[in-house]
């Protein structure tokens, strides 16, 4: 196995954060490591790279949702903390696709499955999501599919 597992990566980053006395990063990395370990226990086996991405995506999404709530509540202290957490989580996610890239994949997929109206929304989403797994937010994909299909 030549690639470093996510757990090994998290552990080495935890040690680095401890040595540099970066308490905020250390706390986030510990949470991420716990999330991966819990997922591993639930699965009953070492996680595949796809499963690791799914765990990190879930952690990222939770923080994105929290950020929106904290902004609504005008809690700048929590907004700043959550933004820092998001930057740490992003390091463990695959590079995110741009909106243009997502639109291109959506259009190619619509052509490939022969979708012609909003009735085909589910079919298109089912075909697009595996292609962008971990690289794009479901909301972005959803909006792109709706935009293209509503113009058909």
From TrEMBL:
A single GO molecular function term of this UniProt record: carbon-nitrogen ligase activity, with glutamine as amido-N-donor
Signal peptide as annotated in the record: none
Pfam families tied to this protein: YqeY
SUPFAM superfamilies the record matches: GatB/YqeY motif
Record PANTHER family: ALTERED INHERITANCE OF MITOCHONDRIA PROTEIN 41, MITOCHONDRIAL (PTHR28055)
Name of the featured protein: GatB Yqey family protein
Native organism: Limosilactobacillus antri DSM 16041
